[in-house]
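Researcher: Re-running this chain for the archive, since the previous output was lost when a drive failed. Same request as before.
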Amino acid sequence: MDPLNPARPRPDAPFTVTFDGREIRALPGQTIAAALWSSGVTAWRTTRGAGRARGVFCGIGVCFDCLVTVDGRPNQRACLVPAVQGADVRTQRGTGHDD
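Model: Regenerated structure tokens:
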């Protein structure tokens, strides 16, 4: 590889996922967190006790601050779940189980 001419990624075509009813663009290989961030969304969960806003904190699946509901399944870590065409991503409130 020539260090003066680094390789440029050439991802496949973007696609959309839905976040709280709004379509956002995602690229192949992005996590849900990356797609949300690149769309300007920085918080997508509220804490169980105080209802404080949360988004990505650690980015490696350790802290659980980035939980979302994906296609009806709560407690999905947005920093680990790949974005896929047509996914329905929702802000998670509390435990995500209508409590």
